[in-house]
Amino acid sequence: MAFWNLNSLELEAFRPGINSRAELGEQLIMAYMEIAAGEEDSGHLHPYDQCGVVMAGRIEMFIGSERKLLSPSQTYFIPAGEPHGWKTFDEPATLLDISSRQPGA
Amino acid sequence: MAFWNLNSLELEAFRPGINSRAELGEQLIMAYMEIAAGEEDSGHLHPYDQCGVVMAGRIEMFIGSERKLLSPSQTYFIPAGEPHGWKTFDEPATLLDISSRQPGA
């Protein structure tokens, strides 16, 4: 679908604590994600770039040695291979997240 | 830079009518763009995916045969090779725009 309205987009269960909707292109994956309060990814890395913007709520992220509490209109850019993770607090956070597709994925 | 605050990000002249700031990764280019009122790109295409979200203002876009007036929290996804263009009206529009880097670019 060419256009989404994030205010009315229907999401599906992606994994526990995360609902999402994704659009897959040849090279990009665009995903809208709603992460529940009190969730955490303590850290991982992958060989492709990832970036995005917080649309609602708050989420703490770390990328390499940088750590920041992000609010709406704040963006993140995770270079390929860089360790990163995130944590939500007392409210859900919604993100528009874009990844480069892994070769062969 | 790992994190941007779009409300205070300093932009640079990109081309007439567009100020922007870009982050280049290995596979992704993330750009924040402010397009002036009354600007138009009547259409073009390229061999890589592009997507993004409107953060402020309004912009009309077409992607293939679909045309839509986009407001904040509305997204677009332009598959590789699909003709697309845009037009602003009486106010500037700001976008967070993500492209896959062209091989060799």
TrEMBL record, chains A, B:
<protein>
    <submittedName>
        <fullName>(S)-ureidoglycine aminohydrolase</fullName>
    </submittedName>
</protein>
<keyword id="KW-0378">Hydrolase</keyword>
<dbReference type="InterPro" id="IPR013096">
    <property type="entry name" value="Cupin_2"/>
</dbReference>
<dbReference type="Pfam" id="PF07883">
    <property type="entry name" value="Cupin_2"/>
</dbReference>
<dbReference type="InterPro" id="IPR052535">
    <property type="entry name" value="Bacilysin_H2HPP_isomerase"/>
</dbReference>
<dbReference type="InterPro" id="IPR014710">
    <property type="entry name" value="RmlC-like_jellyroll"/>
</dbReference>
<dbReference type="InterPro" id="IPR011051">
    <property type="entry name" value="RmlC_Cupin_sf"/>
</dbReference>
<dbReference type="GO" id="GO:0016787">
    <property type="term" value="F:hydrolase activity"/>
</dbReference>
<feature type="domain" description="Cupin type-2">
    <location>
        <begin position="32"/>
        <end position="98"/>
    </location>
</feature>
